[in-house]
Design brief:
Blueprint (H helix, E strand, L loop, with lengths): L6 H35 L1 E4 L3 E7 L6 E2 L7 E4 L4 E7 L3 E5 L13 E4 L5 E12 L4 H8 L3 H21 L11 H7 L26 H17 L4 E13 L2 H54 L1 H12 L18 H15 L1
Antiparallel strand pairs: 1-4, 2-3, 2-5, 6-8, 7-8, 8-9
Pfam families: Band_7
Protein name: Regulator of protease activity HflC (Stomatin/prohibitin superfamily)
InterPro entries: Band_7
Length: 345
């Protein structure tokens, strides 16, 4: 008699096959995840516009490897680390207020020839040469952003400070307010002790000097960083320099005094011109009187003629000249007047 296995007894065989398939699927997925994590943790992707810098702890030449890694996918072995440095041209702004480059205060501080403290925001445009990135990192051993915030910012501040310390914030500005109050307003500006004479003042930070300072500082930065592979392309002020309040008040006082001086000079010039005009007029009148007197002295008959004219009513008594109508015979008038006088007698 043959005994057939029941359907219930055959089911476990099918269920075990399905379980093995499911387990195999989970194993494959787990292996993929492990490989993905391994690839992610042991490799670095260098984007276009960047270079990779590899450092190793083992091998024949441990430390920073001199050969930069180009854009692409690179493995990190045991004891290796790959860092990326941007080689694209970049503009970084060192500002007091937070911006896209950083949230902390990064303003540049400096002083003038008298030690007056000032601050300003500066924008620096630069790029790192692809063949010098590894050398630059080997020198400073800082990540790219840390390098910009640290050594580069310090160098920018020092270069600007070296140039601003050669110039006054404003020529003769330190004691401008005291000088204006103590010295009468004149065309000549008072000389302030401790500052260069006006003839020797090559510039001032309030004015064209601020751009001259920036250009010289940029040239110094280029000489310093170009051999290290950092190209300084442009540097410029962001806004205006923040001067000490005392200096601004002194300059404002001096400007007001100079404006008042110019207004007073204009008034004096106007009064002088009016006086000159009156003097010229008086001189002209005096010259006319002199000529008239000389004419009378040289021609006594003129006086007699004027008397006759006034007697005849031809001229007013206060007239200097007298014009007789055309066709009138003066001799006839005189004889007629004399005859009238004889008849009245």
């Amino acid at each position: 008699m043959t005994v057939r296995p029941s359907r219930a007894l055959r089911m476990p065989s099918g269920g075990g096959s399905v379980g093995r398939v499911i387990g195999l699927v989970f194993t494959i997925i787990l292996l993929v995840l492990i490989m993905t994590l391994s690839v992610s943790s042991c490799s670095v992707t260098v984007e276009s516009g960047y270079v990779g810098i590899k450092t190793t702890k083992f091998g024949a030449t441990p430390g920073v490897q001199p050969q930069e890694l180009g854009p692409g996918f690179h493995w990190e072995g045991i004891g290796e680390k790959i860092r990326t440095y941007q080689t694209l041209q970049r503009t970084y702004s060192y500002t007091r207020e937070p911006n896209s480059d950083g949230g902390e205060n990064e303003e540049i501080t400096f002083s003038d020839v008298l030690g007056l403290p000032m601050t300003a925001d500066v924008a620096l445009t630069f790029r790192i040469r692809e063949d010098k990135a590894a050398d630059l990192y080997a020198t400073w051993r800082q990540e790219f952003d840390a390098f910009i915030d640290g050594p580069l910012r310090t160098s920018v501040r020092a270069a600007i400070a070296r140039e601003t310390e050669k110039l006054p914030v404003a020529c003769n500005a330190q004691q401008a307010s005291e000088a204006v109050a103590a010295v009468p307003a004149t065309d000549a500006a008072p000389i302030v002790p401790g500052t260069p004479d006006a003839q020797d003042c090559p510039g001032q930070l309030i004015g064209p000097g601020r751009q001259i300072v920036l250009q010289k500082a940029m040239q110094a930065l280029q000489r310093e960083w170009s051999p290290q592979g950092l190209e300084i392309i442009r540097m410029e002020w962001v806004g205006s320099i923040r001067y000490p309040e005392s200096v601004l008040q002194a300059i404002q006082s001096r400007t007001t005094a100079e404006q008042n001086t110019r207004a007073a000079i204009e008034r004096v010039n106007l009064e002088r011109a009016n006086a000159d005009a009156r003097i010229a007029q008086a001189r002209g009148q005096a010259e006319a009187n002199r000529l008239l007197a000389e004419s009378i002295r040289s021609n006594p008959e003129v006086v007699r003629l004027r008397e006759i004219e006034r007697t005849l009513g031809l001229c007013p008594l206060n007239a200097n000249t007298c014009v007789i109508g055309q066709g009138v015979n003066l001799s006839t008038l005189i004889e007629s007047r004399n005859a009238q006088n004889e008849g009245n007698r």
